[in-house]
């Protein structure tokens, strides 16, 4: 009988002492046992180090790395963890999230069966600070997903980029993803590590260019949703600027994108800026940046709005919902 492949579990932490013990317990109690845990703390100022000390001598904790200065972006910690990882597969288990104990037992066999898959991911329940489920559903599964008898689907990576990831980052939480380490090692870390908000979107794009994507239609992950309006407002400007760069890069990768679809995408950006909870000066700056980076403006917004309205009557029109694989 073949030995089950090693999974490297990277746990990046920053000031989440109140969640860290639950995170660690749902890792160490996974029904899939062949794991190594890489604990990374990014200069926390709370009681995180006290929690880490409880686990640092566990036989499955292979590394404990404590930063003395905060890195400024979570994606540097991703890269640091990948440099230490030895497993065939990697799971970035964010310290404030937690999972069902069957997560790896569901994901690993599917990756083993599909050797050309770059990654697989599950659905997530959004929970509050106390673990209560809240009414936010980022998966947005519909008839296509719920009617799948196998409970999962395998997609061509480039098709997934063209029809899904161009519209938004469908992989909204790293804690629900298992990916192939050798594929990840070929990704240029300088690009996604330079981002503060959207580096994950870029990372998944680069992974999908190398292999297939597996969607598992079970909610096995619990994504902690933090209510911090001031932080969201601050990040909105940063995230949108980084998103412009990502779409610009994707359009280089996907020359088959039609002019009309590109226009709609710019219209979606304009709409987001228009509705964002940001300072008026930041909003103006974002409109200017959209124009400079992607040539998008009010005209694209008007076309997107008209397209949205007419799509209720004309099933041939392009929308994110219709394009979704």
Task: Produce the secondary structure layout.
Blueprint (H helix, E strand, L loop, with lengths): L6 E7 L3 H12 L6 E7 L6 H8 L5 E6 L7 H11 L4 E4 L5 E2 L3 H11 L3 E11 L15 H4 L5 E4 L1 H9 L11 E4 H4 L4 H5 L5 H10 L3 E13 L4 H25 L5 H17 L4 H15 L3 H13 L9 H4 L2
Helix pairs in contact: 1-2, 6-9, 10-12, 11-12, 11-13
Q: Which key phrases capture this entry?
A:
46% helix; Spore Coat Polysaccharide Biosynthesis Protein SpsA, Chain A; alpha/beta; single chain; 325 residues; nine-stranded mixed sheet; 9 strands; 2 domains
Short description, anyone?
The protein is an alpha/beta fold and 325 residues long. It is built from 14 helices and 9 strands. The chain has 2 domains: 7-224, Spore Coat Polysaccharide Biosynthesis Protein SpsA, Chain A (Alpha-Beta Complex); 231-323, no CATH class.
Description:
With 325 residues, this protein is of the alpha/beta class. The chain folds into two domains: 7-224, Spore Coat Polysaccharide Biosynthesis Protein SpsA, Chain A; 231-323, no CATH class. Helix content is 46%, strand content 18%. It has helices at residues 17-28, 48-55, 74-84, 103-113, 143-146, 157-165, 181-184, 189-193, 199-208, 229-253, 259-275, 280-294, 298-310, 320-323, and strands at residues 7-13, 35-41, 61-66, 89-92, 98-99, 117-127, 152-155, 177-180, 212-224. Strands 1, 2, 3, 4, 5, 6, 7, 8 and 9 form a nine-stranded mixed beta sheet that branches. Helix 1 links the parallel strand 1 and strand 2 (35-41). Helix 6 packs antiparallel against helix 9 and helix 10 (229-253) runs parallel beside helix 12 (280-294). The longest helix is centred in the last third of the chain and has 25 residues, at 229-253. The model has no long low-confidence stretch (mean pLDDT 95).
């Amino acid at each position: 009988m073949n030995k089950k492949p090693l999974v490297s579990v990277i746990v990046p932490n920053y000031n989440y002492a109140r969640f860290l013990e639950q995170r660690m317990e749902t890792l160490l109690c996974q029904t899939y046992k062949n794991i190594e845990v890489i604990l990374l703390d990014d200069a926390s100022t709370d009681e995180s180090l006290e929690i880490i000390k409880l686990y640092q001598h566990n036989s499955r904790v292979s590394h404990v790395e404590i930063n003395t200065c905060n890195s400024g972006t979570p994606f540097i910690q991703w890269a640091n963890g990948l440099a230490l990882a030895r497993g065939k597969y990697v799971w970035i288990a964010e310290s404030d999230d937690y999972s069902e104990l069957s997560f790896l037992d569901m994901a690993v066999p599917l990756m083993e069966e599909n050797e050309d898959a770059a990654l697989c991911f599950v659905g997530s329940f959004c929970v509050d600070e106390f673990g209560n489920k809240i009414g936010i559903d980022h998966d947005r599964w519909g008839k296509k997903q719920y009617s799948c008898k196998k409970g999962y689907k395998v997609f061509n990576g480039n098709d997934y980029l063209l029809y899904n990831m161009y519209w938004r980052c469908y992989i909204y939480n790293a804690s629900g993803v298992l990916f192939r380490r050798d594929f990840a090692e070929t990704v240029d870390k300088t690009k996604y590590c330079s981002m503060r908000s959207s580096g994950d979107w870029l990372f998944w794009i680069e992974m999908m260019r190398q292999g297939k994507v597996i969607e598992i239609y079970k909610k096995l992950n619990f994504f902690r949703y933090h209510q911090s309006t001031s932080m969201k407002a601050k990040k909105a400007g940063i995230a949108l600027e980084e998103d412009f760069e990502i779409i610009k890069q994707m359009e280089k990768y996907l020359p088959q994108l039609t002019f009309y679809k590109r226009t709609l995408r710019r219209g979606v950006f304009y709409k987001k800026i228009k509705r964002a909870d940001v300072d008026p000066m930041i909003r103006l700056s974002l409109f200017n940046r959209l124009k400079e980076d992607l040539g998008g403006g009010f005209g694209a917004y008007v076309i997107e709005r008209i397209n949205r309205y007419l799509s209720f009557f004309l099933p041939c029109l392009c929308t994110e919902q219709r394009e979704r694989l």
